[in-house]
Design brief:
The chain is mainly α. The chain contains 6 helices and no strands. It has helices spanning 2-18, 22-35, 40-52, 56-72, 76-91, 93-99.
């Protein structure tokens, strides 16, 4: 039941984000992470919402956590997708400057 609830919260957050309600989306993803702090999709989705809100440093933290969690759960294709996103952030000097750090995945 717990896994289904986390998936449901993640789905609710995705729907809210698609509808433009980024605060609601962030709340749903955060709630999912309170239940399962290593859920890679919730970390990834929260990172995406944070990036849309201009909170790039926080987004990168969630992307990095998502990559590690996905690899730990043998979700290797998803982990690679996340690492690609992080490399894109690394290639954009404006983002590196705004966060003051490199984003290369672990």
């Amino acid at each position: 039941i717990r896994i289904n609830y986390v998936e449901s919260l993640n789905h609710q957050g995705a729907l809210a984000a698609r509808g433009g309600n980024l605060e609601e989306a962030a709340d749903r993803f955060s709630e999912a992470l309170r239940i399962d702090s290593h859920e890679p999709k919730a970390h990834f989705n929260l990172g995406h919402v944070l990036a849309q809100q201009g909170k790039v440093g926080q987004a990168i933290d969630h992307y990095r956590t998502a990559a590690v969690a996905a690899a730990e759960r043998n979700e290797n294709d998803f982990a690679e997708q996340i690492k690609i996103r992080l490399r894109l952030y690394d290639q954009d000097p404006r983002l590196r400057k705004s966060t003051g750090r490199e984003t290369t995945p672990p």
